[in-house]
Amino acid sequence: MSHVESKKIPTVRSEWVEHLRRIAEPVLEAAAVAELRKRMPVEKHSQAAVREKVTHLEAVGRCLSGIAPWLELDSPTNGPEKALQEKFRDLACKTIMSVTNQKSPDFCNFTEFGQPLADAAFLSQALVRAPTQLVEKLSEKAHYDVVQALKSTRAIAPAFNNWLLYPAMIEAALHRLGAKWDPLRVEYAIRQHEQWYRGDGMYSDGPVFRCDYYNSFVIQPMLLDTLSEVGAVREWISPEYPKVVIKRAQRHAQILERFISPEGTFPPIGRSLAYRTGVLQLPALLALRGQLPKELRPGQLRSAMTAVLNRMMNMPGTYDEAGWLKIGFCGSQSSIGENYISTGSLYLCSTILLPLGTAEDKPFWATRSEDWTAKRLWAGKHAPPDKALPDQQVIQ
Asked: How far apart are the first and last CA of the chain?
């Protein structure tokens, strides 16, 4: 057997794990030893004066929200992946302790300016997505610190848009932590977003509709995760509401998959394009939960997402020489960074990796590869017609 023939061929999953390692390692290795402030560069808009005071919690919360299901997974598929998972589990717990301990050099800002409300919510999302690894393994002191840090964000008033879901997500995490939580903050966010539902699987981000990717960045994933944690605690709006939310999410996931071109690109539309692959958080979450619509087959979605992941994250300039993400959509493009974007913001890209929280023998990884919708149609092949989701207003 020749040297070329004996060389192990990377699997698609191993490619995804390598993306996870490359994204998360600088953040976790620095924060776990309380050196995130020391090591992480702060690239930002020239007019963004306060980003140094909020960007570190951004990096931690967003990075962990994407890799949490993988940390939680009981059965990683091979030796190298298992070793990396064990390493990152340890680093993640130490990171959480470091950023919530007031005596730590890396204690993060949870109360000053508005931004910490958002990133405490992403940290909360991680806690809900990995309760065994990121909640149960905390020491008593660390558990107390996390609860106090999350509760302290109640001093921040959310904007009247997707930000209403941040307090809801935080309260869901407090419920998971066994702390006193406020159901009214959850109910207000749910009822208001029901009023903002615009049809065909899409919510507006506040009273005015904007064409962007916030249905996948924030709105629908946080609705799903909040309801997963506290949905059984009480009836929210109506008995049918959780099923309706899933149906809408499934439809929006279909839309996002159809946006992916044969070349593995998608339209650069709307705000926050520096979140890169975070655009696909919603279909990634449905794949994790085993709730993809029947029209969106796992092998088809895996192929599409892999094409996007490699196209965006392998572009030269995406990382600096030390491995930190650079502002950009595809490579280093500081011009697209809004005044709320800084280095920590960029780690929302990790949320495309949510399917790594499913085992190798589950449908997302085990089913055969297929061309995605746009690739089939632009090659002259058959695909089913697209259908809008019937109106599903359920508010009482």
From this structure: 69
Beta bridge partners of 342: 44
Surface-to-core class of residue 5, CB atoms within 10 Å of its CB (0-12 exposed, 13-18 middle, 19+ buried): exposed
The reply to whether the predicted model has a pTM over 0.90 is: yes
Element (H, E) at 57: helix 55-72
Measured distance CA(13)–CA(365) in Å, rounded? 7
- Between CA 321 and CA 327, with CA 322 as vertex, the angle to 5 degrees is 75
Q: Which residues contact 283 (CB under 8 A, 6 or more apart)?
A: 216, 253, 256, 257, 292, 296, 301, 305
> What is each CA distance from 11 to 14, 84, 203, 362, in whole angstroms?
5, 16, 37, 15
E-only strand ranges, 24-177? none
- Per the CB < 8 A criterion, the answer to whether 252 and 221 are in contact is no
What CA–CA distances, in Å, run from 197 to 19, 177, 232, 396? 34, 31, 22, 14
pLDDT band of residue 247 (cuts 50, 70, 90) is: very high
Burial class of residue 9 in the structure, from the number of CB atoms within 10 Å of its CB (0-12 exposed, 13-18 middle, 19+ buried): exposed
Q: Which residue has the tokens 């092998």?
A: 299
Distance CA 356, CA 396 (A): 38
Mean pLDDT score, 188-210: 96
Q: How far apart are CA 153 and CA 121, in angstroms?
A: 9
Residue 79 DSSP symbol:
H
Helix (H, G, I), strand (E, B) or coil at 44: strand
Question: Could you tell me which CATH class the domain 8-378 is placed in?
Answer: mainly alpha
Distances in Å between the Cα of 217 and the Cα atoms of 108, 222, 257, 315 are 23, 9, 15, 21
Residue 233: what pLDDT? 87
The H or E element spanning position 30 is helix 12-31
Q: For the segment 77-102, what is each residue's pLDDT rounded down to a tens digit?
A: 678 999 999 999 999 999 999 999 99
